[in-house]
Amino acid sequence: MPLALLALAIGAFGIGTTEFVIMGLLPEVAGDFGVSIPTAGLLVTGYALGVMFGAPLMTVLGTRISRKRMLLLLMGLFIVGNLLSAVAPVFAVMLIGRVVASLAHGAFFGIGAVVAAELVAPEKKAGAIAMMFTGLTVANVVGVPLGTLIGQNIGWRVTFVAVAALGVLGLLGIAKLVPDLPKADGVHLRHELAAFKNVQVLLAMAMTVLGFGGVFAAITYIAPMMTNVAGFADTSVTWLLVLFGLGMVAGNLIGGRFADRKLMPMLFVALSGLAVVLALFTLTAHNKVLAAISVALIGALGFATVPPLQKRVLDHAHGAPTLASAVNIGAFNLGNALSAWLGGLVIAAGLGYTAPNWVGAALAAAALVLAVVSAGLERGSWVSSPVIASATPEAGRRTEPAHR
């Protein structure tokens, strides 16, 4: 694998840390600003919505400059947003800081996935994408637990200053190691937009929303769930997040390996397993050992869907994949925002801290249904949804799906 993938993974590590560390610090942030846990959960929802809207916006704004330069600008925006969160005098300002940082997230992973795929042979694309996302998953093993520990013992503001420093390291790594790849000749915004006429691209994005939304429904409220239901001490949340991160690392690598071989079967297994584990988590959350195992499995099964879904979007948006790739990252976070909001609703309705697990199970099951529909459409002789000719500069070219 090219060394440039390491630079992309460093940037992903910083972004992954800021995205997930807030979950372990919700009680501290809520207490500091005098707001409820569901209200503090808006820091997750706001970040996710910022990613969703920022992914296409920042990608479109960056169409006239090189991908490397755009990655550098995005890391700069990420640094500013985290510093704003660190010095926020009131909750509203911190929410703004979270949104500012989130604007870099979707476009970074979307553009980064395209760059990673271009650096390797076609049969290794999913593995390269997974390698970049390894930074995001390792963040949950190292960055998030360490950030949570710092936040609980020194102060959550110090955590966000440290996250901004990670952004600086990511920026320097990209500047030094990522090549300035030329843009594809003849590809314009209209070609990027035309990829959204492909029903398989839209189905993959819908699976992304629902599948990873299932993960966030449970994990957003892991701190109050594990302390109030399972009986863990507040300090144990850090190690539970390590387990979640280890599961993510394993799932990401497994998903990347099998996505280059058996993409749809990988999705079927991951989504069905995720739905079952989330449903059982409502019961296992009452036992410390079973709860810890469930947290790890949710991370593994949830992230096993990421490389396959990202590659599926790239396959079906062939020729003009940058915007579609970025929007799919936004789709992950639309699912995060939707599930965090729904999870907050069921908690606020008095259904208990385990109720979001049922929400997550339903979302994952819905994603599995869409996967079955997508596979059926792809096998059907009546399907007319390969990449629209106008989506690529090679007019009239038919791109056959890479996986059946």
UniProtKB/TrEMBL annotation:
Which terms does the record give in the GO molecular function aspect?
A: transmembrane transporter activity
Q: Which InterPro entries match?
A: MFS (IPR011701), MFS_dom (IPR020846), MFS_Efflux_Transporters (IPR050189), MFS_trans_sf (IPR036259)
Does the keyword section mention Transport? no
Q: Does the keyword Acyltransferase apply?
A: no
**Cellular location(s):** Cell membrane
The chain positions of domain Major facilitator superfamily (MFS) profile read: 4-379
Ordered alphabetically, the record's keywords are: Cell membrane, Membrane, Transmembrane, Transmembrane helix
**Subcellular location, principal:** membrane
Q: Which residues cross the membrane?
A: 38-59, 71-96, 102-121, 128-150, 156-178, 199-224, 236-254, 266-283, 289-309, 330-352, 358-377
Q: Which residues form a coiled coil?
A: none
Membrane topology term: Multi-pass membrane protein
Cellular component annotations (GO), alphabetically ordered: plasma membrane
What is this protein's name?
MFS transporter
